Amino acid sequence: MLKVASLQNNPFGESTYVVSNPATGDAIVVDPGMLTPAEQEKFDNYIRRTGLRLTGIVNTHMHLDHCFGANYVRDKYGVKQAAHPDDTFLAESMAEQSAGFGVPGGRNVTIDVPLKEGDKIDVGDDSLEVIHTPGHTPGGICLYSPSSGFLLAGDTLFKGSVGRTDLPGGNFKTLGSSIKSKLFRLPDKTVVFPGHGPHTTIGDEKTSNPFLG
Ligand SMILES: [Zn+2]
Ligand SMILES: [Zn+2]
């Protein structure tokens, strides 16, 4: 069984997730959004307090708010950055994203490990499955845990909403089809942890999400 902890970061209210395997002590961080020294310290304290061994960084996509802490974690913990290569243009345009959102602090991120649909990300002796869900960004992915019944959805699917599609590379039709053809096939009881806001379930979004009628 895997465990999910969330940390709120940066002016966008982004959720950074630490997925850990209590049986082995291994953990990965998903969407490291810590921007300020205080946010970095909160993350470090969590890792230290739990005694977890951080083995990698995975990004659901390469928007600024999900990447502020990527270089910090990569340098401090000596771990590699994994993401879908279709978001490389975003990883390499953090300065422009910073200017566009009026929030300074973005630094370009290097994707060390390219991910694709169906890849498995090890967390100790358990793993997460990569589901490619383009639409919010071309390289957007969700991470699914079959053993523990949860989905890290990035900005693809929110409680009662979906990710915006007006940013570079976004496409509403593609997003809708990613969600319906891939995410809505998961078990209804799957708990969804989005990149912003409260968690939900696949079953709840199937029946009540107004953007996916
Ligand atoms: Zn985003
Ligand atoms: Zn976001």
Note the main attributes of this structure.
about 210 residues; alpha/beta; Metallo-beta-lactamase, Chain A; 6-stranded mixed sheet; 6 helices; globular; binds zinc ion
Q: Determine the fraction of residues in helical runs and give it as a percent range.
A: 10-25%
- Flag low-confidence runs: none
How much strand?
A: 25-35%
Structural class: alpha/beta
Instruction: Calculate the terminal CA-CA distance, rounded to whole Å.
Output: 33 Å
Q: Under the CATH scheme, which class? A: Alpha Beta
What small-molecule ligands were found?
A: zinc ion
Can you give the mean pLDDT?
A: 97
Task: Return the string of H and E elements.
Answer: EEEHEHEHHEEEEEEEHEEH
Here the CATH topology equals: Metallo-beta-lactamase, Chain A
Structure description:
The protein is an alpha/beta fold and 213 residues long. The chain has one domain (3-212): 4-Layer Sandwich (Metallo-beta-lactamase, Chain A), CATH 3.60.15.10. Helix content is 24%, strand content 29%. The protein has six helices and 14 strands. The chain has helices at 37-50, 70-77, 88-91, 94-101, 172-181, 202-208; strands at 3-9, 14-21, 26-30, 53-58, 81-83, 113-114, 120-123, 126-132, 141-145, 150-154, 157-158, 161-162, 191-194, 200-201. It has a six-stranded mixed β-sheet, with helices on one face. A hairpin with a 4-residue loop joins strand 2 (14-21) and strand 3 (26-30). The longest helix is centred in the first third of the chain and has 14 residues, at 37-50. It is globular. The mean pLDDT is 97. Bound molecules: zinc ion (2 copies). One zinc ion binds next to loops. One zinc ion (ZN) binds at residues 12, 14, 63, 65-66, 155, 195-196.
